[in-house]
Specification:
The radius of gyration is 19 Å and the shape is elongated. The chain has seven helices and three strands; from the N terminus they run H-H-H-H-E-H-H-E-E-H. The chain is of the alpha+beta class.
């Protein structure tokens, strides 16, 4: 198929390529925060996460809000402290489904001498 023909049809990959998710992961500080949170394996406060990066707490807070809006993180508030946690199940399911859809787009190998 030609690219112009393919763009007119929809497949599972079209629904799984989430621009907001990829945009949220396309910034180095946000990736560092996600990595730090994932490795901690528990909810962390904004103050704790500020120690992962060499940026101001207000900048960290904005980055965490972007990740939360994209579905990467969840937040919970205890008093005046906000804790963020990785949405492990959501992320792994989203990336597995995307990987499966990408695999489904791969051209089939020809076998034999045809």
């Amino acid at each position: 198929m030609k690219p112009t023909e393919v763009s007119q049809c929809c497949g599972p990959i079209d629904d799984l390529l989430d621009a907001e998710l990829f945009k949220s992961l396309g910034e180095p500080t946000r990736l560092k925060l996600l990595s730090c949170l994932a490795k901690c394996g528990r909810p962390c406060s904004v103050t704790e996460l500020t120690e992962c990066c060499a940026v101001d707490i207000s900048v960290v807070s904005r980055h965490l809000a972007v990740l939360e809006k994209a579905g990467v993180l969840t937040s919970m508030k205890e008093g005046r402290t906000v804790y963020y946690a990785v949405r492990y199940k959501h992320l792994t399911e989203a990336f597995r489904a995307l990987a499966k859809a990408i695999e489904g787009c791969r051209p089939k190998r020809r076998t034999g001498n045809a």
